[in-house]
Structure formats: C-alpha cells, structure tokens
What we know:
Elements: H1 18-25, H2 33-45, H3 49-69, E1 74-78, H4 88-95, E2 100-105, H5 108-118, E3 124-128, H6 134-139, H7 141-146, E4 154-158, H8 170-179, E5 186-192, H9 199-212, H10 221-226, E6 232-233, E7 239-240, E8 260-266
Parallel strand pairs: 1-2, 1-4, 2-3, 4-5
Antiparallel strand pairs: 5-8, 6-8, 7-8
The structure holds S-adenosylmethionine.
Amino acid sequence: xxxxxxxxxxxxxxxxxxxxxxxxxxxxxxxxxxxxxxxxxxxxxxxxxxxxxxxxxxxxxxxxxxxxxxxxxxxxxxxxxxxxxxxxxxxxxxxxxxxxxxxxxxxxxxxxxxxxxxxxxxxxxxxxxxxxxxxxxxxxxxxxxxxxxxxxxxxxxxxxxxxxxxxxxxxxxxxxxxxxxxxxxxxxxxxxxxxxxxxxxxxxxxxxxxxxxxxxxxxxxxxxxxxxxxxxxxxxxxxxxxxxxxxxxxxxxxxxxxxxxxxxxxxxx
Length: 269
Ligand SMILES: C[S@@+](CC[C@H](N)C(=O)[O-])C[C@H]1O[C@@H](n2cnc3c(N)ncnc32)[C@H](O)[C@@H]1O
C-alpha cells in the first residue's frame, strides 16, 4: 500500500499494529487499511469494542484529572498510544501547567506522532521503549530530565498490561516501577477481562486479535486487583471502567458490558 509521509521507512505498512488498531477504533487517522481490516474482524466478534475504548479514554481523563487535583505533578504514561483527543499532558496541564509528562510506547508511529504534537513543549516528552524493561525507561535521559523521583510520580498503565503475558510477570514489572517511586506516588491501571457478560464472545475476539495482531492476555478481576498489591486503593477500588468516579450526570449504563477493570492506588507513607 501507499506510504503516507508520516510513516517512516521502518514502519511495516502491511502488518497491523495494536496502537494503530486502537487509533482506528477511536476514529483517528494514524492507521492503515491493514489496521482497519483487523479492527473490523475483531469488532465482528465484539461490536461494543469502540464503545469500550471510548470508556477507557474517559477513565484516563477522570483518573489523570483526579491525580492532578490531588497534587500529583509528574506522570509516567506507559503504553501511551497514538495521541488522540484528551491526552495526559492536556488533562494534567489544565489542572496545573507545571505538570511533567513522559510518554512511553514501543510503537514507532505512536512515538513519532507524540513527538510531533509535543514539539516546542518542554514539560512533556515521548520515548520509544518496551515497558517490560523498567530500568531502561527509568534511567532514560528524557525520563531523568523531566521526572524527579524524590517527589511523587503517577505511573499510568492504561489498556496496556493485557499485552504483557504472564511469562513476562506483569506484577513484577509493576512493582519495579513502584519501587523507584517515593510514598505518595500513584498507580493507575485499566485492563481487559473475560469477566464481562459474555466471556465466550470476548474469548473469540481475543483469539482473533492474537491471530491477526499480537498476544493478548485477559485477566480476572482478582488478578488485576493483585497488580495493586502493597498499595492503598483509592475509592471505589477496582471496578468496571464507567464505575470509577463518574462525573456528575454521567450515564453509567451496563458497566459490565465494558468487560474492562480500572483502578487507581497510592503508595503509602
Ligand atoms: C490500546 S493502546 C492504549 C493507549 C493508551 N494508554 C490509552 O489507554 O488510550 C495500547 C498501547 O500500548 C502499546 N504497547 C503494547 N505493548 C507495549 C510494551 N511492551 N511496551 C510499550 N508499549 C506497549 C501499544 O503500542 C499501544 O500504543
């Protein structure tokens, strides 16, 4: 297929990517035919998927807004994705323009597009790295330049840990990031689960995703809650996306339909 100017020669335009499929589901423009086809195949099994992704973005907005309102000024956004409407820096800066944000993604288009929209802004940056290598990210010169680990940091892992298989030990990865932070730091996670209303259908969609894109590990609510071990969960705990501190007047509807859990926790003093 034809290569758009924003896709460098290192991008395989014939292979779907999780970041670009997510962008396609959200109605973004940084995706190719191959991503839209993969997205359509997955949606055939799970028509509510675009709705779930919008609910995930809405949770991201509420969580970052809440954290910034609680005085957090530093954000490490792991698996940040292709920028779309309502990015972490925009939400955080609305609350406090002094916030600093480091975006991390393994996808080259997510990182190059993030860098483009951050051009000229010195309090946010984007680095290309694999979140399964925490020490590399924590020691990265851009992370060190922007984040002061003697002060609280919010570690954000929105809709990304289901790309990390059990064999890579996601709990140990999360712990490694939190071990680098001081008390008062926070962890926010959203994570797909099979505990929705129709687990068989979700399993079919997962298998389709595995066949066409990459590995995907749904986890139970108990497994997702265990990712917060040792931290103090902020009210209301680990709940379905729309149930996490909805805005006044929000329609929660059938929250279980999102089959995705969300939670935010704080490291105790
Ligand atoms: C579904 S998107 C979520 C984007 C954003 N966090 C959100 O919730 O809107 C998942 C992102 O995680 C990235 N990703 C997957 N595995 C990763 C890894 N091991 N290291 C870094 N990024 C990863 C993908 O490239 C993709 O951009």
